[in-house]
TrEMBL record:
It comes from Albidovulum litorale. Keywords: Lyase, Metal-binding. Belongs to the HMG-CoA lyase family. One of its GO terms (molecular function) is lyase activity. Residues 5-272 form the Pyruvate carboxyltransferase domain. It holds the Pfam family HMGL-like. The lineage of its organism: Bacteria, Pseudomonadati, Pseudomonadota, Alphaproteobacteria, Rhodobacterales. InterPro entries: Aldolase_TIM, HMGL, PYR_CT. This is Hydroxymethylglutaryl-CoA lyase.
Length: 284
C-alpha cells in the first residue's frame, strides 16, 4: 500500500479571510458542506479574531452552527486569545489553533503584540483547551521570509516551535505566509525545527505567491513531513501580510501527491466542484 499524506483544508478560513466582498454566511456553509464530502479529516472553517481586524470572519459562530457535520471530520477555528477561545468553544469547534510568528514585524502587524506577548496570550488558551479536551494546533508564520523583517533565521522558527510544543500543541504548521520560500530555505528551516519536533508532528503551510509551493512541499516530503495545508481554488492570503497571495491549491497538491504515488484519500471530482465554487465566491 502506498504511503498516506494528509491535506488539511484551509479554504473556508485562510482562503476566504482576505476576500473584499463580505461573503454571505450561507455561501460559506455551502462550501464547507461540499468540502465535507471530499474526504478531508480536518477543515479549518472559522476564525474567532477581532471583527475589526478581519471582518470576513465575523460570522464564524454562524458558520459553525450552520454546517452539516460529517462524522470523522474535525472542524477547526483560529483563536488568538481567550475571547476567541470562548467563542470557538461555544460554537463547538472540534479543534482550535493558536498562531504565532517567527518575526517581530509580522507579530506586531498580525496580532498587535510582540512574539513573547502573543505566547503569553496563547498559554491560557492552550491550558483551557486541554482542560476541555479540545485539541490545539499551532502555527508559526513567516518561517522563511517576512514582509517586514526580511529573511528569517531558522533558529527563530525553531524557538517558537519549541514554545508552542511546550504549550501542548499536537501539531505545528509551518507557514510560508508570503510564499517566498525556496526548497533550500525551507530545508534549512526544517533542519533547525526538526531538532525540536519530529516530522510526524509538523505540517507545511505554503502559500503559492511565487509558484514554488509544490517544490517546497517536495523539500518537506524529503524531510518526512506528511501533512500539508492547502485551500481549494488556491484562494487566500493574509490581510496583514502584504504580497501574500493564495494558499497552494488543494487540487494541485492532491494531483501532485498522487503523481508521486502518495494517497490522500480525497475525491478529485468533489474537489474540482469545490474549487469551482470557491473561485465563484471571489469578489470581483
Ligand atoms: P488588539 O486591538 O490589540 O486587541 O488586537 P484588544 O485586546 O486591545 O481588543 C481590541 C478590540 O477587539 C476589543 O473590542 C476586543 O473586545 C476585541 P472593542 O472594545 O474595541 O469593541 N477583541 C476580539 N473580538 C473578537 N474576537 C476576539 C477578540 N479579541 C479582542 N478574539 C487581536 C489583538 C489579536 C484581537 C487582533 O490583532 C486580531 O484579531 N488579529 C487577528 C489577525 C488575523 O486574523 N490574521 C489572519 C489569520 S493568521 C494567518 O492567516 C496566518 C496563517 O494562515 C499561517 C500563515 O500563512 O503563516 C495561520
Ligand atoms: Mg496562511
Amino acid at each position: 500500500m502506498s504511503e498516506v499524506v494528509e491535506i488539511v483544508e484551509m479554504g473556508p478560513r485562510d482562503g476566504l479571510q482576505n476576500e473584499k466582498r463580505i461573503i454571505p454566511t450561507a455561501e460559506k456553509i455551502a462550501l464547507v458542506d461540499l468540502l465535507s464530502r471530499a474526504g478531508f479529516r480536518r477543515i479549518e472553517v472559522a476564525s474567532f479574531v477581532s471583527p475589526k481586524w478581519v471582518p470576513q470572519m465575523a460570522d464564524s459562530a454562524e458558520v459553525l452552527a450552520g454546517i452539516t457535520r460529517r462524522a470523522g471530520v474535525r472542524y477547526a477555528a483560529l483563536t488568538p486569545n481567550m475571547k476567541g477561545y470562548e467563542g470557538a468553544k461555544a460554537a463547538h469547534a472540534d479543534e482550535v489553533a493558536i498562531f504565532a510568528s517567527a518575526s517581530e514585524g509580522f507579530s506586531k502587524a498580525n496580532l498587535n503584540c510582540t512574539i513573547a506577548e502573543s505566547l503569553e496570550r496563547f498559554k491560557p488558551v492552550a491550558d483551557a483547551a486541554k482542560a476541555d479536551g479540545i485539541p490545539v494546533r499551532g502555527y508559526v508564520s513567516v518561517v522563511t521570509d517576512c514582509p517586514y523583517d526580511g529573511r528569517i533565521a531558522p533558529s527563530a522558527v525553531a524557538r517558537v516551535v519549541a514554545d508552542l510544543r511546550d504549550m501542548g500543541c499536537y501539531e505545528i504548521s509551518l507557514g510560508d505566509t508570503i510564499g517566498q520560500g525556496r526548497p533550500e530555505t525551507v530545508d534549512a528551516m526544517l533542519t533547525d525545527v526538526l531538532n525540536e519536533l519530529p516530522p510526524d508532528r509538523l505540517a507545511g503551510h505554503y502559500h503559492d505567491t511565487a509558484g514554488r509551493a509544490l517544490a517546497n512541499i517536495d523539500a518537506s516530503l524529503a524531510r518526512g513531513i506528511r501533512v500539508f495545508d492547502a485551500a481549494v481554488g488556491g484562494l487566500g492570503g493574509c490581510p496583514y501580510a502584504p504580497g501574500a497571495a493564495g494558499n497552494v491549491a488543494t487540487e494541485a497538491v492532491a494531483a501532485h501527491l498522487a503523481a508521486l504515488g502518495y494517497q490522500t484519500g480525497l475525491d478529485m471530482a468533489v474537489l474540482a466542484e469545490a474549487g469551482a465554487l470557491a473561485r465563484n465566491m471571489r469578489g470581483a
